[in-house]
Every structure is written in C-alpha cells, then in structure tokens.
Amino acid sequence: MNEYKLIFMYGFALFGMFFGAGNMVFPIKIGQMTGENWLLGGLGLAVTGIILPFLGLFAVKLHKGDYMRFFGGAGSLARSVLPLVMLSLFGSFAGEPRCITVAYGGISQCVPGLTLCVFSFIFCVVMYYVCLKEQRIINLVGKWLTPVLLLFLTALIMLSLADAGVPGESTDTPMGSFCGGVVTGYQTMDLVAAFFFSKLIFTQIQKKLPPETSDKDVIKLSVKSGAVAIVMLMAVYVGMVFLGSNFAGLIENVNPASMLTTVANHTMGSYATLFMGLLIMLACFTTIVALNSIYAQFLHSLLKLGKDKFKFVLFMTTAITFAISLLDFRGIAEFLVPILDALYPSTIVLTIVSIFTKEHRQLKTILFYGTLAAVILHKVFA
Fold this sequence. Notes:
16 helices; Amino acid/polyamine transporter I; mainly alpha
C-alpha cells in the first residue's frame, strides 16, 4: 500500500481512538472556564490531551507493546496495581458511565421526558448483548462515524465564527488558564488509553507493511501518522475551546454533557441538534462496547476464570457501569478528578523517563512514588 495512504489512514485511526466521549465535553468546558485566555487553555489541554498520549503510545511500544512491562518499570507493586486501577477507571468505574452520560446529554434535548435511568438501562442492555455477539457491525459503524462526526464538528465551528459573541473575562491569570487546561486534560484519560491500545495500533500498522520492514521503519511511519492525528486533534480542540469561550453565557447553567448540543441548537437549529445528538450517541456506544469488552476480558483473565464464566464477568461490569452512570456527569467527576489529579503526574513522569531508558528500574521507582507522594501531600496540606 502507498506509504502516504497508510500515513493518513492510521492518522485518522489515531484521531478516532483519542477523540472519545470526554473529548466532546472538556474542550468546551475549558473555553468556558478560561474566557479571554481560551487559547492558552487550549494549549494546556494539548499537553495532556494530545502530546502526552502520543508519548505514551511510543513509551509502551519501546517496551515491545507490553504495558505490564512498562508499568513494571516502577516496581512489582506498580506492575500489579496500576493496570487494574487504570482499567477500572477507564472501564466500568468512570470511562463507561461517562460515555453514557455524554450520550444522554446529546439526545435528551431532543427527547423530552427521557430520564437518565431509563436511557442508561436501555443503553447497557444493548451494550451487553453486542459485547456477547459479533462486533463487526460496531467496527463498520465506527469506521464511518468518525469522519461524519469530524465533518459535522468542523461545520459547527465554521458556522459559529459568524455568530460567536465576545469571550468573557477570565477569572484566572494567563498561566492559571494554561495550567487549568493541563489539569482538565487529565479527565480525557487519553494517556491511559494510549497504554492499553499501543500494541493494537502498532500491530495493525505492521500488518500493512512488507514482512521485511524493520521495527525502526514501523516507528517512523507511526510517527508520521501520529503527526497527522496531532494536527487534526489540535484543530478540533482549538475550535471547540473557542466555542466554549465565545458561547460561555449560553452554556453557563448547562450540564457539561449537553454543552455541545446546546451550541449546535443555537447555531444550526433543532434538526442539526438531533443529528449531532445521534452522532454523539453512536460514537459513545462504539466506544463503550470496546471499553466494556476490554475491561471484562482483563478481569476474566486476572481472576483466571473458566471460559463459561465470561458472561457473568461481563454482566457484572455492565451492572457497575449502569449504577455509576446514575451519578450523572458531574457526580462521576467528583470522585474521578481527585484520583486522576493524584495519579496522573507520577504516570507522566514514568512515561517520559521510560522513553529515554528501558533500564534503571530503581530510578523509575523512586521518581514514580516520589512524585505520587509529593502530589498527595500537596493535596492534603494545601
């Protein structure tokens, strides 16, 4: 296959992988929070929502795609605990329920009277069934869904330029706005996604190349694909942060999960709102099916259960997802944010150090736990 075709094909795939449920909420939220400093807030988001996830991809790749080996660089305790904690947050305890609340926020404006409880129950029943059955239809929908969603978001951003108001005054300093964007970017959990999807991405790229292609050449092509994805993500993020800043008054009292559809309704009308709501719901559904399958398979393997017990594990992960989704987007954020604020800085340190060296385990352990302890102490005594 032509190299340039491969670069753009996987650049698009990487964009789709990192542009999940949280990415349709937090850029607008950052714009709303930072006001006139919206560009600095967007750059802060780019650090944790774009640059670090791609560094995470390559850090795990340098450990031959084995995320257990990567986490093991911080010691045996980190190797055992971190994958469980991160996949639990990424799965049924935060990532999946948040997908449901974002899907609900996208469609609830078009279906008055629909409660989160009813929507979540139906969503989870269908998700459980699809996780058990053939997933080719999900892969097919996902293949076409990302480009349509990207085109619709681009149209929304472009049309909003003529209708946008004046950015509100920021209540923070420029540096504070930048740091706020960085910390809010933790909640996308894209760095976590990079750890667990790294091997899949690199394996898919390698399959499209001749067998004699060296690992170095695979990484080179991956870097070029990553650059394409970075440009697309940056363009969309900046546009959405701009929307949040310039429509701050419109979304002031709106649930974060409904902010995007509220702007779409104001700018493009009710039919566009319905279309966007359906796109968001389908995007969240394809994401949540993948997350639930990955998390259930991880627990099934960790507990060393028989093949016949997978249905039970899947049922439990689905039930947990349903229960936590009832907390709504803000409720999930209340317990998720403190955990990510504590865990992310030490994980970032481990990622950066691991890129420069696969050895020096003792140094990695000291830096990882030292950073974790410093952040926790700062949170306790600040």
